[in-house]
């Protein structure tokens, strides 16, 4: 179990339901000229950002581990296919 | 072999190595959807820390990534002291060790742009979103500039919902 000093940091990572709803609102209708609007225009899937913000830092990195592992498996399968 | 980010980070934490997570894993730590295959770290270049770093990796066959197999290389304190940035492969994944980070500088400068986070149950320094944006702008390569819209959008979103840095 993490020590109390460490657990204090985890609180700032986790998004509440209220902030999630706010975030969905912001990404659905980003203000024209904003960085969010520019990201959307660039092709960034903003829903993935909200999904990730619902996770803790550790959960985000664990998710990356799974993705990296899956991509590596795909890469190896691809290289073995004649 | 996919990089085992968790194992690498825990390994360094257990050896009390002073490091800051930068690059793609730092982006992910803040909520980016970026996928990366290596772990980029900025390390403090004190003799004690270099010793700890070498000790942490000693059992994992650290070698220069992409270098010919017969190239003599030993990841030991004198080697690290003579160099600065190292692009390594290990038996638990790829690890880039940077003594200096583009747009920020050496460890102490990077530290000022970093935040303490909980990672795998322990405190871990991670380069802030603002710091990441600075480094990507400074590096200026196509692959760095490509991620800027996402980082800037994420930074704005976090501020709007009160997850301000």
Kindly describe this structure.
The complex is a heterodimer of chains A (82) and B (165). By secondary structure, chain A is mostly helical. Chain A is built from five helices and no strands. The N terminus of chain A is likely disordered. Chain B has 165 residues and is an alpha+beta fold. Chain B contains seven helices and nine strands; from the N terminus they run H-E-H-E-H-E-H-E-E-E-E-H-E-E-H-H. In chain B, the strands form two sheets. Chain B has a seven-stranded mixed beta sheet. A two-stranded antiparallel ribbon of chain B has the order 6-7. Chain B is globular, with a radius of gyration of 16 Å. Chains A and B meet through helix 1, helix 2, helix 3, helix 4 and helix 5 of A and helix 1, helix 2, strand 8, strand 9 and helix 7 of B.
What's the Cα radius of gyration of chain B? 16 Å
Proportion of residues in β-strands of chain A:
under 5%
- Would you list the SSEs of chain B in sequence order as H and E? HEHEHEHEEEEHEEHH
**Percent of residues in helices of chain A:** over 70%
Apparent shape of chain A: flat
Report mean pLDDT of chain B, rounded to a whole number. 94
* Percentage beta strand of chain B: 15-25%
So what's the oligomer here? Answer: heterodimer
Helix content of chain B: 40-55%
Largest two-chain interface: A-B, 47 and 38 residues
């Amino acid at each position: 179990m993490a020590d109390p000093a460490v657990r204090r940091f985890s609180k700032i990572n986790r998004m509440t339901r209220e902030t999630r709803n706010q975030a969905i609102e912001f990404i659905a209708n980003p203000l024209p000229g904003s960085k969010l609007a520019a990201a959307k225009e660039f092709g960034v899937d903003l829903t993935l950002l909200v999904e990730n913000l619902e996770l803790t830092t550790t959960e985000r990195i664990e998710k990356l581990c799974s993705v990296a592992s899956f991509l590596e498996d795909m890469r190896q399968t691809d290289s073995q296919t004649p | 072999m996919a990089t085992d980010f968790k194992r690498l980070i825990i390994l360094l934490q257990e050896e009390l190595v002073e490091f800051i997570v930068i690059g793609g894993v730092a982006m992910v730590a803040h909520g980016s959807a970026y996928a990366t295959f290596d772990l980029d770290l900025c390390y403090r270049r004190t003799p004690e820390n270099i010793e700890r770093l070498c000790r942490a990796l000693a059992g994992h066959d650290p070698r220069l990534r992409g270098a010919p197999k017969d190239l003599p290389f030993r990841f030991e304190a004198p080697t690290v002291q003579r160099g600065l940035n190292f692009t390594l492969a290990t038996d638990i994944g790829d690890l880039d060790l940077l003594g200096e980070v583009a747009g920020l500088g050496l460890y102490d400068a990077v530290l000022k742009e970093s935040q303490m986070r909980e990672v795998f149950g322990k405190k871990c320094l991670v380069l802030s979103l603002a710091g990441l944006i600075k480094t990507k702008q400074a590096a200026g390569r196509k692959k760095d500039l490509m991620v800027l819209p996402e980082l800037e959008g994420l930074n704005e979103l976090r501020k709007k919902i009160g997850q301000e840095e």
